[in-house]
UniProtKB/TrEMBL annotation:
UniProt KW keywords: TPR repeat
Name the record gives this protein: Uncharacterized protein
Organism: Niastella populi
TPR repeat intervals: 68-101, 102-135
Annotated Gene3D superfamilies: Tetratricopeptide repeat domain
SMART domains according to UniProt: TPR (SM00028)
SUPFAM superfamilies for this protein: TPR-like (SSF48452)
UniProt keyword Transmembrane, yes or no: no
């Protein structure tokens, strides 16, 4: 089973609450899949309708001002036409109207990234993360990469080059870019994550997972690596270990919203 995280603006989110330890089981089919020492449990009922997909747009019942929404839509059209400065102006207007809405802030960060203004890109990715601390698309990975560039750990423009993995539909090209980055910049954890996801070679996949986790990656990257570690464990006949990895991650305080849903979906597949 291959878990692939795409840079897409369209996901669908379903929230599922986890059952408390003392909840009675009303059906024999509602069996416990995972339990830990803190009293957290996951049952088959908790996982029944999980899809693993996330829509950050509707992650909460937050009211979105219609004018702010209109400005964001205009900005996206302008950005797609390469009119970055006009898009930035529209997004800043949207943010002024609704400063607690993460979408235009994230789009603003991305637009600055496309302009090659990495300082402002980092500034607004951080602002996105502040507004949506449980994760908003790839903001956490962007912060990790751009902070590394700012500190001189990675060369300027590495994150933008890395995003080409997501922008191509050719799996061979994706894999080639990921390998090239890991070879030239072995300390860049997100590239190891991509290699773990894309490679069909079991040894290469396992090496990529463990190498990526050893680099203290951002929480988004870490989650994908742990989910893939669980998949490898399950494929090697270590189902219970795989379940423990996923369950512990789901209840981890640093787990991101999107990865929690992905981990639940993976857990449901393994539990079957």
């Amino acid at each position: 089973m291959r878990i692939i995280l795409h840079l897409s603006y369209v996901f669908f989110l379903i929230f599922f609450s986890c059952q408390p330890k003392n909840k009675s089981m009303n059906s024999q089919k509602n069996t416990i899949v995972f339990t830990d020492s803190s009293g957290n449990i996951l049952t088959t009922t908790d996982l029944a309708n999980v899809t693993g997909n996330v829509n950050y747009q509707v992650k909460s019942e937050q009211y979105v001002d219609s004018k702010a929404q209109s400005l964001q839509n205009e900005a996206r059209s302008l950005g797609q036409s390469g009119k970055y400065d006009l898009a930035i102006n529209k997004l800043k207007q949207a943010i002024q109207i609704q400063p607690n809405w993460a979408y235009p802030i994230y789009d603003l960060a991305f637009t600055y990234l496309l302009k090659g203004d990495y300082g402002n890109a980092l500034k607004y990715y951080k602002q996105t993360d502040s507004v949506s601390p449980k994760g908003f698309f790839t903001a956490k990975t962007a912060i990790y990469a751009l902070e590394g560039e700012q500190a001189g750990e990675f060369p300027n423009g590495l994150y933008l080059s890395y995003l080409q993995i997501e922008w191509t539909d050719d799996l061979n090209k994706k894999l080639a870019i990921a390998k090239a980055i890991t070879e030239k910049f072995p300390g860049f954890a997100p590239a190891w994550k991509e290699l773990a996801v894309l490679s069909d070679n079991k040894q290469e996949k396992n090496t990529a997972i463990e190498r990526g986790l050893s680099l203290e990656p951002d929480n988004e990257t870490k989650g994908i690596l742990l989910i893939n570690r669980a998949l490898v464990l399950n494929e090697n006949g270590k189902k219970e270990e795989a379940i423990q990895v996923l369950g512990n991650y789901i209840f981890s305080p640093d787990a991101t919203m999107g990865n929690i849903e992905l981990a639940k979906f993976t857990l449901k597949s393994i539990a079957k």
